[in-house]
Structure to design on (372 residues):
């Protein structure tokens, strides 16, 4: 008896998962369920068939090596609406289901479309989950606002709205409100935990995580600075918390500086948080130098122009003394110095900075810091 037939007979002809279509050279058997009773064939022969017919021709399909539980991966599209161009507005949701029962964890990014590092971190995490030993389910939506992602803007360009201020949304409201309402209805039900990933956007770089309703989960993500504060109304996380979902919002990276480091830290932080939640096996790593702050000040310039940094990204998480020059705004055409931004408190913990000469408008995020 071929190993695949033997495996099928031991599982009574019922594959563990029937919702996946994925290729893995690790496994030895492919289970085809098209046309009646599931049948097992060696993966090698499925691979040669699939070259001409493709994965979809055999969907749903599952394969696993005898005695192993590889997570099934399922991609679905959350349909939002039709755009003026006639193209659909829809969001990709990747679901990884383990072979063992466990919590359902949602991970989201790019609610603000100019926050790119978390999107790449989720691509890398998804690749690692393909071969991980999972309990429960991980559901990933890497780009919650594709319209602002395409435009590389914080707000949705069609209605100039900040998506993360209009949750839980309104099915009859602005486009961003309709997106929010559908996403809440499609994504939040059944979730035990939510990790909503943010970054500093196109220009600033940031490094902290919010404490929402689960301090240990926030700590497990691994930033040095944890912020316990009121947050903003209308955020996705606010709705999740109101529904009793264990929630953390992270703010890590941005500004294209030291990108690989921040992406690697995001992947490591997510894996540690998934260990904390019991989804991934292994010991949870705990930092011993974390700082909880309850006041977070934003310095916004009063003049637009070119903001030339006085402190760098390497000073994030560090304390600077009162009066330290954080940055200077110049008129880019006349070179006139318009404003100097100084550290306001006796001791200032740097949370967000601009590590390169950047364009700034009056009122933009310049720096974030906490008195310590
Ligand atoms: Zn954001």
């Amino acid at each position: 008896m071929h190993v695949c037939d033997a495996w099928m007979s031991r599982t009574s002809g019922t594959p563990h998962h029937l919702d996946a279509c994925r290729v893995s050279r690790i496994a030895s058997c492919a289970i085809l369920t098209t046309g009646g009773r599931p049948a097992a064939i060696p993966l090698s022969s499925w691979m040669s068939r699939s070259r001409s017919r493709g994965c979809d021709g055999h969907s749903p399909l599952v394969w696993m090596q005898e005695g192993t539980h590889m997570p099934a991966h399922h991609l679905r599209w959350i349909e939002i609406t039709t755009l003026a161009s006639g193209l659909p507005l829809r969001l990709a949701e990747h679901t990884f289901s383990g072979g063992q029962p466990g919590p359902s964890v949602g991970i989201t990014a790019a609610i603000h479309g100019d926050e790119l590092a978390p999107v790449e971190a989720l691509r890398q995490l998804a690749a690692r989950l393909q071969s991980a030993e999972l309990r429960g389910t991980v559901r990933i939506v890497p780009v919650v606002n594709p319209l602002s992602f395409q435009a590389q803007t914080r707000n949705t360009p069609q209605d100039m709205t900040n998506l993360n201020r209009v949750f839980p949304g309104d099915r009859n409201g602005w486009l961003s409100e309709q997106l929010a309402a559908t996403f809440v209805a499609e994504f939040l039900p059944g979730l035990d935990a939510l990790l909503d990933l943010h970054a500093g956007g196109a220009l600033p770089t940031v490094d902290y995580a919010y404490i929402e309703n689960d301090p240990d989960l926030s700590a497990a993500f691994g930033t040095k600075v944890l912020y316990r504060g009121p947050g903003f109304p209308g955020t996705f996380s606010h709705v999740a918390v109101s529904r009793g979902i264990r929630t953390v919002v992270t703010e890590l990276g941005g500004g294209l500086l030291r990108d690989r480091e921040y992406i690697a830290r995001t992947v490591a932080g997510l894996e540690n948080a998934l260990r904390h939640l019991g989804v991934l096996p292994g010991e949870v790593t705990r930092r011993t130098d974390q700082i909880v702050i309850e006041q977070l000040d934003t310095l916004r310039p009063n003049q637009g122009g070119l903001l030339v940094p006085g402190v760098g990204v390497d000073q994030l998480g560090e304390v600077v003394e009162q009066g330290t020059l954080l940055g200077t705004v110049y008129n880019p055409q006349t070179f006139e110095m318009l404003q100097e931004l100084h550290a306001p408190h006796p001791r200032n913990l740097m949370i967000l900075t601009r590590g390169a000469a950047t364009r700034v408008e009056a009122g933009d995020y310049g720096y974030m810091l906490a008195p310590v």
Remarks:
- The longest strand covers residues 72-82.
- The CA atoms of residues 3 and 29 lie 8 Å apart.
- The chain is about 20% helix and 30% strand.
- The chain has three domains: 3-62, 72-292, 295-371.
